[in-house]
Amino acid sequence: MDLHYWQSQFEAWLGKNHHEQDSAHDIFHFRRVWGTAQKLSTDEDVDWLVVLTACYFHDIVSLPKNHPDRHRSSVLAADAARRILMNDFPAYPEEKLAAVSHAIEAHSFSAHIAPMTSEAKIVQDADRLEALGAIGLARVFAVSGGLGRFAI
């Protein structure tokens, strides 16, 4: 099964099951992070299925910015992603679950978990780049509005 197959499976699942916590962590965010990730490396040794999966599930749990456990979002997302992959995607290669979990845990700035693999570094960099520029600014306004705060 190729990456396009898995991407379509993940998108279908997210369309049915993911009711984003805020508009900054929706399917469009996941797609942009994946698109950026693909541009960050041409290394043939990178496990692109791990990167794809982590990009699509890295914010499956995203606690609000003002939540006291916000720093745990990536760990909670990694746990949720593992459960989702095991339960809803039985053909997903079990041997990739640990690498996906690590990439999801390490993507978060607030978690302070160092990325130890190329895949985790790519996902972290792609997600952080998503926070920059016009899209990043739009996401700030979306999150601020959702919290009832002014961004300026």
From TrEMBL:
Pfam families with a match to the protein in the record: HD (PF01966)
InterPro entries: HD/PDEase_dom, HD_domain
Any one GO molecular function term: hydrolase activity
Domain of life: Bacteria
Swiss-Prot/TrEMBL keywords: Hydrolase
Domain spans labelled HD: 26-132
Name of protein: Phosphohydrolase
Gene: yedJ
Listed SMART domains: HDc
Organism: Citrobacter koseri (Citrobacter diversus)
